[in-house]
Amino acid sequence: MKASDLFVRQLEEEGVEYIFGLPGEENLDFLESLRTSKIKLVVTRHEQTAAFMAATYGRLTGKAGVCFSTLGPGATNLMTGVAHAQLIGAPLVSISGQKAVRGNRQARFQLIDVVSMMRPITKDAVYLIDPGAIPTVVRNAFKLAQAERPGAVHIELPEDVSESETGAGVQKRGLVRRPAPDAKALLRAAELINQSKNPLIILSSGANRNLISRQLMQFIEKTGIHAVHTQMGKGVLSDASPYSLFATGIHRRDYVNCGIDRADLIITIGYNIVEYPPYVWNAGLDKKIINIDFTEAEVDRYYDPDIEVIGDISCSLRQLGELVTARKNGETFKAIREFLDRKLSLDFKKQYPPTPVEVVSHVREVLSHEDILTLDNGIYKLWFSRLYRTCKPNTFLLDNALATMGAGLPSAIAAKMVRPDRNVLAVVGDGGFMMNSRELETALRYKVPLVILLLNDNAFGFIKWEQQAKGFENFGLEYGNPDFVKYAESYGAVGMRVGKGDNLSEMLRKAFSLNTVVLIECPIDYSVNYETFSRELANIVCTM
């Protein structure tokens, strides 16, 4: 068969449901093969957003999301989204076209070494030169992308390879099971836990999966050990649980550190140092550490585990729970949770424009525990991470690894495609939204109903706060914006604006009831950023 047909057949064998991308002339054979495939093609308005959407698909399903582009500038546009997937640990396979390997008639026009460019930001990047190798190359790409720790793999498919004929056949998937943890490691970990006075769990993105969440709840209820979440681990343990000490919100001391400070043993589950620097929680190098994960830890001066329990995390928790003695001295962390409840409350004084606390309060009131919140990267991300109580895995989606702007809206579109039965809300800043705002049209074209809450301060608010905190003059971070209501309406979406006296909760409920793409522009008062994140957190007093 034609090589591009074989490539698409192999994608079907891998269970691919969607492919996100923006085609070029080097992809035309591949595009034609997709036309007759059962795979749903989602054509985006920029390659970067195709990769963001594929990463979100991978994050929510555990199966590699797939994105594609043409050569040259199309491939360079993919890079930010591919790096995003690699750093957050989302399985992704990206595909780029390329000029003919033989008989290149266009010399060096648009020609760059895409594979070499992709290698530093992926688990692997490969050329496809032999059409007969397509099944094996694609099979290996998916295996590697989905293997722990998941990440990105890139494949380059030249146009003459794509259009050639091959006698190769589809390669079947096999069954792979994760290994069980080592018995001696479990015994040693149990000894450390039983000997400790105040053990504490840190839950991270690698644990943000439904099966782990269920097993973890049983482990915690049996042992009485409390837990803190990283931003990307929010929801692994429900914040409604009395054992949750909520989440880290910033890469410096915050109120949750009042709990971490009292721990003599830290149990990291699914942890990666990219999410929450270990210096923040182990600056004194005085904590014993147990790492429970699918793969061995990437160590750091401040993160060098005493024992690692490597294997299926659910299995590890189940077996470890049988070896750990239930503790009755949880009063220390019980008092800390009560302290955090007070300090991280959603109490606010209504004003206009609203403060971030008020915005978080309205969003939490409207969304159910099953609904999905996606966040772009801005100062509001810190407020939501600290204050938004999360109760289910993968219902709070943000990137605290590459932390790139522009990912919030594409992530919401993909999340709604994967979870059409849930409300999906994207919270974005005006800066991040304008980087990929054209994807409003993509959501409308594919009839993906979602709500975008745009927090507008006409500035790069996060950097503006940092600028103030460093004592610099206000300079270079403010700009003008379009009329966002009219902008949304120009695409065919519904536009709303929060005015003085309006109730944001009511507007959000109305927006979801319309069952289309709705953008709500909300002015925001960020004057509290400096008072909270610079002054207040610099003078934390842990009063229990």
Tell me, briefly, the overall form: globular
Give the DSSP E fraction (strand runs of 2 or more residues).
15-25%
* CATH class category label of the largest domain: Alpha Beta
**Poorly predicted parts:** none
Q: How can the largest sheet be summarized? A: 6 strands, parallel
CATH architecture of the largest domain: 3-Layer(aba) Sandwich
Number of helices: 22
Give the helix/strand class.
alpha/beta
Number of strands: 18
Our measurement of the CA-to-CA distance between the termini, rounded to an integer number of angstroms, reads: 71 Å
Share of helix among residues? 25-40%
Give the strand order of the largest sheet, numbering strands 1, 2, ... along the chain. Answer: 2-1-3-4-6-5
Give structural notes.
- With 544 residues, this protein is of the alpha/beta class.
- It has three domains: 3-163, Rossmann fold (3-Layer(aba) Sandwich); 183-332, TPP-binding domain (Rossmann fold); 345-535, Thiamin diphosphate (ThDP)-binding fold, Pyr/PP domains (Rossmann fold), CATH 3.40.50.
- The chain is 39% helix and 16% strand.
- It has 22 helices and 18 strands.
- It has helices at 3-13, 28-35, 47-61, 73-88, 114-118, 134-146, 159-163, 183-195, 210-223, 257-260, 278-281, 313-321, 331-343, 356-366, 379-387, 408-418, 430-435, 439-445, 461-469, 484-491, 504-513, 528-536; strands at 18-22, 40-43, 65-69, 92-98, 124-127, 152-158, 199-203, 226-229, 244-247, 265-269, 288-293, 307-310, 372-375, 396-397, 424-429, 451-456, 494-497, 518-523.
- The chain has a six-stranded parallel β-sheet with strand order 2-1-3-4-6-5, with helices on both faces. A six-stranded parallel β-sheet has the order 9-8-7-10-11-12, with helices on both faces. It has a six-stranded parallel β-sheet with strand order 14-13-15-16-18-17, sandwiched between helices.
- Helix 3 (47-61) runs parallel beside helix 4 (73-88).
